[in-house]
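Repro case for the chain-ordering regression, as requested:
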Amino acid sequence: MNLTTPAIEVAALRKAYGDQVVLDGLDLTVPAGTVYALLGPNGAGKTTTVNICSTLLAPDAGTVAVAGHDVRTRSDAVRRSIGLTGQFSAIDELLTGRENLRLMADLAHLSRPDARARVDEQLARFGLTEAADRRAATYSGGMKRRLDLAMTLVSRPQVIFLDEPTTGLDPRSRRDLWQIVRELVADGVTILLTTQYLEEADQLAHTVGLLDGGRLVAEGTPAELKAQSGGETLDDVFLALTGHAAEVVR
Amino acid sequence: MTTLAYAVRDSRTMLRRNLKHMLRYPSLTIMLIAQPVLFLLLFVYVFGGTMGAGLPGGGGRDAYLGYVAPAILVITVSSVALSIAIYAAKDATEGIIDRFRTMPIARSSVLTGLVAAAVVQTAFAVTVVLGLALALGYRPDAGVPGWLGAIGILTLLAIALTWLCVALGLAAGSVETASNTPMFLMIMPFLSSAFVPTDSMSTGLAWVAEHQPFTPVIDTLRAFLDGRDPGSDAVWAIGWCLLVTVLCFAWSRRLFSKVRAG
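-- result from build under test --
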């Protein structure tokens, strides 16, 4: 992937479950090294978009390229470039934090010394060193989410999907996670983030896409969107552009 | 490394993960072993005296112990397999499966790692139950070839029943369902040559018992442990095990490509 290839390129993406159309011709481009926030109410198609981009789900129509590879024909190449932290905790609760990270390092085929170093590094970075040898089942919600993200980062993915990464977290854990996202971007990682929290998009994203009814109804920097709709906050923007409020809990 | 080498490495990683699960859930392992142990004690000390008298050539409790011990070992294999359905369902309904599915790993390794762990756990459980049977006075006449044959058929059976239970676990959709659907594996041995010779059953039932897979497997194991040649029973036993393995392996892979957490 060179600098001019977008990290994520979605064109005319469609997905339906039976009669229910979830994505209705979605177009989306995320330049490498940026954060794109996909904002929308429940059922807008955010998770479906992430699942298709991360090879979990096959599209009905349209093309999706991640890190320059088509998700349908080159899914293995896509999987080598991505990391996913979803809404549901994807950790092994019977294993300790360290063992969870080691599992990821082994599956990423790191050598033994590399794996050990990478695991220690992640534990330190996510403030889990003290809890490293406790079973993940005993972790708090915030710790589980941090471990989840740490596991995603073990293999050093270039493109990271964060599906509602801070839903259900207390304000402090949320700010910690935002800090980590900023650090990742500083390292050149591309992030596609879905969120129901307008403040989160405002804080983190270079570009915000408003998803409603399976397509983008507006796209731009947080400042552009505010100017475009005459609203003070992204809440106002959402209301002005979709005719209804985003279901947000701030 | 080649694709195959990666697949083997990933399977080993998953094997370690599953063995850790089993070590951290000792109560489940104890329950799995307790079931065949209870059967052994019940059938030897409660029913054994009377059942032994009904064996061809007669005999008492000791003769019945010799008859039933191989069947109890087969039930031990079923008992462990049952728990694998629970592990498979647990994996399939939790978020970590989506993580595995978005990683560049050999997909089959998630399942083969589980089956390999099941074979290790089966070996442990069978050793414990066999040790108890020996302590109660079971004296198999097998020589080295007989023991090798016994280990071979128990391993094939463990692989077949585990793949069956992996498929049932993935198909279940919930841990609760997964703990129920494979229960027939505990019932089927009762309708086989496990506890009584099939020709002592009523005509219709005898026909069923003679033609269901557990009978040739148990008869083959019994022959090996008694130091006899199992003859055509071994062909049927191996055939059944391979058939179930191939079908359930394919079925599991299909199910695995479809499962979605959450």
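Ordering looks correct now. Chain B has a mean pLDDT of 93.
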